Amino acid sequence: MKRFFPAIVFVLTTFWIGASFVPAKKSHDDLGLAGFGKIPVLVGGRVKPLDTVSRNSLLIIHTKQTLRLDNGRQISAIKWLADTLFNAPVADQYPAFVIQNADVLGLFGWQQSDRKYFSFAQLTPFLKQIDEQGEQAEKLQAVERSAYQSAILNLRNALVLYQRLKNSVQPEGAEDFAAELQAFEQAVPEAARAARARETGASFDQAQLDRIAEVMQGYERLADMAYLLAVPPPSGSADWRSVGQAIMQSIAARGIDPTVKLYASLGDAYRTGEGAAFNQTIDRLTDRIAQLQPTGVKRARYEFFFNAVDPFTHSMTLYVLAFLLACISWLAWQRPLNRAAFYLLLLAIAVHTFGLVSRMYLQERPPVTNLYSSAIFIGWGAVIVALILERIFRDGIGAACAGAIGFITLIIAHHLAGNGDTLEMLQAVLDTNIWLATHVVAITTGYSAMFLAGMLAIIYIIRGVFTPSLKRDTADSLARMTYGVVCFATLFSFVGTVLGGIWADQSWGRFWGWDPKENGAVLIVLWCAIILHARWGGFIRQRGLMIMAIFGNVVTSFSWFGVNMLGVGLHSYGFMQKAFPWLVGFIISQLALMCVASMPLERWRSFRATGATRSIKPPVDFVPPELAVKTTAE
Amino acid sequence: MVNKFVDLITSLKLTIVCLAAGMALIFAGTLAQVHLGIHEAQQRYFQSFFVWWPPEGRAIKFPIFPGGHLIGAVLLINLIAAHAKRFRWAWRKLGIHLTHAGLIIMLAGGLFTDLFAVESHMRLANGETKNYSEDISHDELAVVDITNPEFDQVTAIPESVLQHYHIIRHESLPFQIVVRNFFQNSRLQVISEEDTKAQPLANRGPGAQVMVQPMPRATAPDDQNVVTAAIEIIPIDRPGDAVQESLGTWLVSDELGAPQRFSWMGKTWQLTMRPARYYKPYSVTLQKFTHEKYAGTEIPKNFASQIALIDPERSLNRDVLIYMNHPLRYRGETYYQAGFQKDDSATILQVVHNPSFLAPYVACVIVAAGLLVQFGYHLVGFARRRRALA
């Protein structure tokens, strides 16, 4: 059993991961929502599949990617989107909107109870009120808003998004849109004749002209509201249009764009529940878009696949497992557990890498473009370095660090994804792959290394203080690893910081502007320099190095998140009120660990355990063997 | 005594103390930016020798922490002194030497930039031509002799002079300017006709109908200070002449846009409070400003200014495209796309004159090489030891 344990673990998890890469089977009669999810549209400046749109929109509105109905049935994001787009009266009844703030509930005369999800139908009587209150809140800076104001503004934005979605591919609540469009197409030439007749003074049918004008007004509203730009331009152009815009332009174009008609029949088939017709229309629609925008369709398909695989959730699970295995290996079953943890980590990093590279392909960018992707990348970098350490030292320490950091950073990323699209378009000044690939990557690699050094130090402290497992050679290898990783962090943080300065010099005209993010970066560099000089000067030894490495976590977390919370400067990508308590909690925990580490060494379980020999010497004489060897050698 | 001082100034402890003080200063200065704004916090914490308390407005103030210039200077001295004292050539120290040499270049370059770099703005409407850029935070009082239609003779008095001197004389002016009031920031209000008790500061020009309300100095990056001064023009007494009478008191302010004119002794002058100008020996014309957004969003995709650069001295006339991350470098100055007017009718270019802009580039390469060599040396040593053990 012991011998085969690593292999068994590896095979089982590989199957589990492999299963997520295989697409689900589809049957012919069901509504083919998978095919529907692959259709590309333009939202937020980027061509993406409807699947992504549905997940991100539901995340914004509902804060989750699936929706539980009142009857307990769970529906997927794409099903919710299909109903919203094509069958608004049904979607209006879904309990999609989250309201937790008691003041907001009070505004509607509702008491706070267990219930926190409400349907559009329930909110309809209060739309005007929500709009007014939200508008007031919007005028304030994010930092100045009260909890109530943030909540009402969020609700308003969610409602706006929902209503725009409902009017994206057909007017909300249209019963038979294909027929409506056909009637419109037939009426247009006559109306045009009437309009010409009016201009030349000949007799014309006023009623006819009025009717068509009224219909046009409806489509104009549709064009204003649309959230999706669903009608692709001919290849080479990037000007996607909304269905409403395409209909408005159909008079000049002498005919309605086929994509619009296909969407209309798709909606009709969806409402009547004709699976075969629905699937057939999806195929025709996809063919039509593929003719005009072949790469758009290809990318959308890939993104659909990427969403379905959900690599980061999977690798997160693997990281936790690996961490647990590595920790247990210090107590029992050392070799098999250790090896199993290492295999799991290899699998986890493979899936993690797949996710990272997929994002790069989809966005055509270097890996880090926003805070979300920085979390993904920091985890990735730290895990790789930790795995190298594990390969060299083979004592489970690198594996435990890899598992812990991989898991924590992916959890952070998960919580950063709440604002919608994590592959958002970049502001003009960031639109440069050279600097994103150098400065940003170097800085985030520096963060990775700092967190890894901190994690190694935490393992040193916890194992040393609370368990008897910190043997002398383990302590020495931990010290060497920490020192090496700090050196690595120094190099990357310094180079990254200076490259950032050079980028700033290129784009803003000053190398250094004391912007909070720049200050955060230089704090890391200074702290690394202090650690290294203190060690070279002999002011600190093993334990001092560990304490300082843990404080490195504090400095790095301040630099990564803290400065963004100040809400000033050119780098602040959004105020993150929600993350503040977490950051404070993290910093307090690190300071507490530093206090624990400062306890006299004779109180450490690892050193007390071997007290027989150690008690002879006073605790201050705890000389790291490495230094002791040096002094004797010279 | 001297030995002790040398020991102190070259000690590694001093290095660590300086680095730690630097961290504390940067941390405090970063937090202070929330209330003070980046510019003000920068000046108080980083571009100063001491951080003072209370910060302003009191008669007595104490230095409570070393400022950025002091820490930087001590670190620089420590670095140079330590290396001068202990320098011994050895290949295995190559990395350390390189790293510290790079750092010296970087710190010195930073000091140079702080002392000599000048930042200003050039705001150009479509089709507009300018041969000067304007200071972002400082004003000047321009006294322009416009008598000769061929050319204007400009005498510019910096804001700081108006603030600190009571009587201003200059050889190009036949009169003296007496500063009656000066406000770093203010708000102007037109006196209503019913209000008969109001006593305006000025008795000439539009300022005679205006009340000035002093305001605290704005520090937020987007807030503009409205500098206002009441100035009295008094001819200079020349021996033999009769005692000259005051020509009147004018109100000059950022908010009073149009220049105010007066004539005296057959000459005409204009008075304007305006952002301080830096004139160039060449001119820049905005031909076209473009502002692209991503389809269906408000996210800016690109800003670009197409300008014509005309330099008669060097008989140069060329079109240049300035856009994000692609500035124009010309005659020691660099032009960046910095902003635009809301309706896209004008562009704002940042103009930077920084003679030491190359220092960080050079320093970065040297330090990075140094760190690589040093840590590579450690790594190789580590690998060798492990192999020896195995």
Structural summary, described in words:
The complex is a heterodimer of chains A (634) and B (390). Chain A is mostly helical and 634 residues long. Helix content of chain A is 69%, strand content 3%. Chain A has 4 domains: 1-27 and 310-425, no CATH class; 37-166, no CATH class; 177-293, no CATH class; 433-634. Chain A has helices at residues 5-21, 33-37, 50-62, 77-86, 88-91, 102-107, 120-123, 127-138, 147-166, 177-200, 206-225, 243-248, 250-253, 258-272, 275-292, 294-309, 311-329, 334-363, 371-393, 397-416, 433-466, 472-507, 516-536, 542-565, 580-597, 605-609, 611-614, 625-633, and strands at 40-43, 46-49, 66-68, 74-76, 97-98, 117-118. The longest helix of chain A is centred in the C-terminal third of the chain and has 36 residues, at 472-507. Chain A starts with a helix and ends with a helix. Chain B folds into 3 domains: 2-117 and 358-389, no CATH class; 118-129 and 279-353, no CATH class; 134-277, no CATH class. In chain B, helix 2 (12-36) packs antiparallel against helix 3 and helix 5 packs antiparallel against helix 7. Chain B has 390 residues and is an alpha+beta fold. Chain B is built from 7 helices and 18 strands. Chains A and B meet through helix 22, helix 23 and helix 24 of A and helix 2, helix 3, helix 5, strand 14 and strand 17 of B.
Main structural class of chain B: alpha+beta
Question: How helix-rich are the residues of chain A, as a percent range?
Answer: 55-70%
H and E order of chain B? HHHEEHHEEEHEEEEEEEEEEEEEH
Summed up, the domain count of chain A is 4
Topology:
The complex is a heterodimer of chains A (634) and B (390).
Chain A: H1 5-21, H2 33-37, E1 40-43, E2 46-49, H3 50-62, E3 66-68, E4 74-76, H4 77-86, H5 88-91, E5 97-98, H6 102-107, E6 117-118, H7 120-123, H8 127-138, H9 147-166, H10 177-200, H11 206-225, H12 243-248, H13 250-253, H14 258-272, H15 275-292, H16 294-309, H17 311-329, H18 334-363, H19 371-393, H20 397-416, H21 433-466, H22 472-507, H23 516-536, H24 542-565, H25 580-597, H26 605-609, H27 611-614, H28 625-633
Chain B: H1 2-9, H2 12-36, H3 38-46, E1 50-53, E2 62-66, H4 68-86, H5 94-116, E3 118-125, E4 129-145, E5 153-158, H6 159-164, E6 167-168, E7 175-183, E8 186-190, E9 210-214, E10 228-235, E11 248-253, E12 260-264, E13 267-293, E14 300-311, E15 316-323, E16 328-330, E17 333-340, E18 346-353, H7 359-389
Antiparallel strand pairs in B: 1-2, 3-4, 3-18, 4-5, 4-13, 6-7, 7-10, 8-9, 10-11, 12-13, 13-14, 14-15, 16-17, 17-18
Helix pairs in contact in B: 2-3, 2-4, 4-5, 5-7
